Amino acid sequence: MVLALMLCSSLAFIGGIVEDYTGNVSALRRLILTMAAALLGYFLLDAKLARLDTHSAYSCSIMSGWRCRSPVLAVAGIANAVNIIDGFNGLASVVTICMLISLAYVAFQVGDVFVLVAALMVGAPQPGS
């Protein structure tokens, strides 16, 4: 599962590295690469929106259409939001650590061990650093 996650994220990562070194990757291309990485994660990792906790008939009717779009838009939005924060003040690492610690707390509350461990591995301070 971790290898599949790394494969999915490599699209956006490679696009970011190429942009850092060359400066020739437009914002639209980076957005498309990020959305492609999220779409790959949708299929390889089964990262779907399982349910909406609303009780309206309207939400049930649109649910099937949002199973794919919601994760793709969320991943692209978060990645680009962090990029904007980093461009403004260079403090994206602090914001990202706060987001990951919050995500780990929510994963702990709902019992999602994979997300908990992954968020803590990336977001928690490492010994000796």
Can you give a write-up of this model?
- The chain contains 5 helices and no strands.
- With 129 residues, it is mainly alpha-helical.
- The protein folds into 2 domains: 88 residues, no CATH class; 39 residues, no CATH class.
- The radius of gyration is 16 Å and the shape is globular.
- 11% of the residues are buried.
Total domain count: 2
The residue-averaged pLDDT reads: 79
| Order of secondary-structure elements | HHHHH
Query: Rg, please?
Result: 16 Å
Biggest sheet details: none
Shape: globular
Query: Regions with pLDDT < 50 over 5+ consecutive residues?
Result: none
How many beta-strand segments? 0
Backbone structural class: mainly alpha
Q: Proportion of β residues?
A: under 5%
Distance between the termini: 28 Å
- Secondary structure tally, helices: 5
Quaternary assembly: single chain
Q: Into which percent range does the helicity of residues fall?
A: over 70%
Secondary structure elements and pairings:
Layout: H1 2-22, H2 27-44, H3 57-89, H4 92-110, H5 113-123
What are the defining features of this structure?
129 residues, mainly alpha, 5 helices, 79% helix, 0% strand
Give a concise summary.
By secondary structure, the chain is mainly α. The protein is built from five helices and no strands. The chain starts with a helix and ends in a 6-residue tail after the last helix.
